[in-house]
Amino acid sequence: MKIETVFSELKQLVKAENVKFDEPLFDYTYTKMGGNADVFVTPSTYEEAQKVIKYSIQHEVPVTFLGNGSNVIIRDGGIRGIVLSLANLTDISLKESKIVAQSGARIIDASRFALEHDLTGLEFACGIPGTVGGAVYMNAGAYGGELTDVLDHAVVLTSGGELLKVDKEELGLEYRKSLVAEKGYLVLEATFNMEDGNHDKIKEKMDELTYLRESKQPLEYPSCGSVFKRPPGYFAGKLIQDSELQGVQIGGAQVSTKHAGFIVNVDNATASDYIAVIEHVQKTVKEKFGVELEREVRIIGEDPATARASESLSG
């Protein structure tokens, strides 16, 4: 099926200005790298998102979900088919003592919303750069807190395009993972259980965590955040530091000299540069300490050498 046809037909299902052809994904990732999306769609409603999913099923067009690009590396060959972003779905509201946040809202903003309403429980998220949907996807956490601590339920689109309310227990939330991808869910919104708190104490905690983040993390460079999961019994950053890898650079990607758990884009890095550094770090730590570093960051898309021409999805 011609990608131009997909582009044209999706503009009949979603507001035309929210459907883009051959869209560079550079500006949609925190690493500031990645190839183009054949068709990039940003629905404004749940119904529009549902239409896109059902269209992709009916016409057998691959669809890739993209949050705000904070925990993902998009390969230089880009992404074939449809890239679906919920960046337009950012509403956050209060329902009794629960916070309801749409998938495209930043989890940082949900944390700040909680502060504004003197609700405690989301302080740990005040420095996590991802979206609410991404936070559910990976059970995001920081400084001793995780999403599973406060999540009540999520509203998702199933792989068949059905709207479904899913309780926390059904999402299989574990350390930096969930069953969202395995079940083919697209998270549309999340509801958090909150408790009444003292405004000044909540703010004090958030200020403390913000200071820790800004003082220790290399926020001056584009990056995908913490690259590796914490290995049982170890800290990834300490293993990398003890392997004398800080400052190691391939192309424009470098192991941060400020925080060894980060890989930063210091000089117009490509995704291939970034991935090469990741693999070098994994290999070196394995050789020195016998520890397998598992990626926390997702790698999606195609290498330039293997990417198909985007004139036709069927080749």
TrEMBL record:
Enzyme class: oxidoreductase
Gene3D superfamilies tied to this protein: 3.30.465.10, UDP-N-acetylenolpyruvoylglucosamine reductase, C-terminal domain, Uridine Diphospho-n-acetylenolpyruvylglucosamine Reductase, domain 2
Cofactor requirements of the protein: FAD
InterPro entries found in the cross-reference section: FAD-bd_PCMH, FAD-bd_PCMH-like_sf, FAD-bd_PCMH_sub1, FAD-bd_PCMH_sub2, MurB, MurB_C, MurB_C_sf, Oxid_FAD_bind_N
GO cellular component: cytosol
Domain called FAD-binding PCMH-type: residue spans: 33-197
Catalytic activity: UDP-N-acetyl-alpha-D-muramate + NADP(+) = UDP-N-acetyl-3-O-(1-carboxyvinyl)-alpha-D-glucosamine + NADPH + H(+)
Localization terms from the record: Cytoplasm
Record key words, sorted: Cell cycle, Cell division, Cell shape, Cell wall biogenesis/degradation, Cytoplasm, FAD, Flavoprotein, NADP, Oxidoreductase, Peptidoglycan synthesis
Catalytic residue positions: 176, 226, 296
GO biological process, one term: cell division
GO molecular function: FAD binding; UDP-N-acetylmuramate dehydrogenase activity
Superkingdom field: Bacteria
This enzyme's EC code(s): 1.3.1.98
HAMAP family: MurB (MF_00037)
Free-text function comment from the UniProt entry: Cell wall formation.
Family indicated by similarity: Belongs to the MurB family.
Name listed for the protein in its UniProt record: UDP-N-acetylenolpyruvoylglucosamine reductase
Organism for this UniProt entry: Exobacillus caeni
Lineage per the UniProt record: Bacteria, Bacillati, Bacillota, Bacilli, Bacillales
